[in-house]
Amino acid sequence: DTEVTQTPKHLVMGMTNKKSLKCEQHMGHRAMYWYKQKAKKPPELMFVYSYEKLSINESVPSRFSPECPNSSLLNLHLHALQPEDSALYLCASSLGTAPYEQYFGPGTRLTVT
Amino acid sequence: SQQGEEDPQALSIQEGENATMNCSYKTSINNLQWYRQNSGRGLVHLILIRSNEREKHSGRLRVTLDTSKKSSSLLITASRAADTASYFCATDAFRTNAGKSTFGDGTTLTVKP
């Protein structure tokens, strides 16, 4: 199984809602990542988990809260988002941190109204 | 600004032609990777080249790295309509946190049948 799955595929939420994005991999990878990608822009790194511990937080606002319950799962909890947070949220995993290739999920298209 | 910048921003060719994309970066790197992204989807890893390597091949793909010029190129030979996608370089800068890949702005390739 060389797949990273993400749910949901699409999410529309109001600015007062609380929602979560989920990511799962069963490749035995020990590093997992969240990226944010706006239209026609490159992915921007948000968080990196290495061996289930948060190793990189790219100064992301606290309305985004990551969680790694186990080595296969990665969540991104969303609360009080702003319309400018609308984007494609990509999850990725790799065997370890650099220099390993990252495997990306298909993404969650988030719209904040 | 972004660690990686790509050139050209957009490229349109006929099927069967070769496509060349360039990536420049600003600081010393440990390795450089190329990814492909079909419209609105997750990224697919193409090739990883380490800072001590000059050239790598994978099928119809050829990647070169010139650390003295801080640049890399991706050549796709005998292009196909299915190669239509955005292509990103990603760098792991020297002496940064492991797992922190910075993506270039990307080149949008259109291959006309």
Which ranges of chain A are low-confidence, i.e. pLDDT below 50, for 5 or more consecutive residues?
none
Largest interchain contact: A-B, 28 and 25 residues
Number of helices of chain A: 0
Give the percentage of residues in beta strands of chain B: over 45%
The portion of residues assigned to helices of chain B is under 10%
What percentage of amino acids of chain A are in beta strands?
A: over 45%
What separation lies between the terminal Cα atoms of chain B? 36 Å
**SSE succession of chain A:** EEEEEEEEEEE
Rounded average pLDDT of chain A: 94
Helix/strand/pairing category of chain A = mainly beta
What structural category characterises the helix and strand content of chain B? mainly beta
Order of helices and strands of chain B: EEEEEEEEEEE
Number of strands of chain A: 11
Average pLDDT for all residues of chain B: 91
Tell me, what's the shape of chain B? globular
- Separation of the first and last Cα atoms of chain A: 36 Å
Shape call of chain A: globular
Structure commentary:
The complex is a heterodimer of chains A (113) and B (113). By secondary structure, chain A is mainly beta. In chain A, 0% of the residues lie in helices and 57% in strands. Chain A contains no helices and eleven strands. In chain A, strands 2, 4, 5, 6, 9, 10 and 11 form a seven-stranded mixed β-sheet that branches. A four-stranded antiparallel β-sheet of chain A has the order 1-3-8-7, with no helix packed on it. In chain A, a hairpin with a 2-residue loop joins strand 5 and strand 6 (53-57). The mean pLDDT of chain A is 94. Chain B has strands spanning 4-7, 10-14, 19-25, 29-37, 43-50, 55-58, 61-66, 71-76, 85-93, 101-103, 107-112. In chain B, strands 2, 4, 5, 9, 10 and 11 form a six-stranded mixed β-sheet that branches. Chain B has a five-stranded antiparallel β-sheet with strand order 1-3-8-7-6, with no helix packed on it. In chain B, a hairpin with a 4-residue loop joins strand 7 and strand 8. The mean pLDDT of chain B is 91. Chains A and B meet through strand 5, strand 9 and strand 10 of A and strand 4, strand 5 and strand 10 of B.
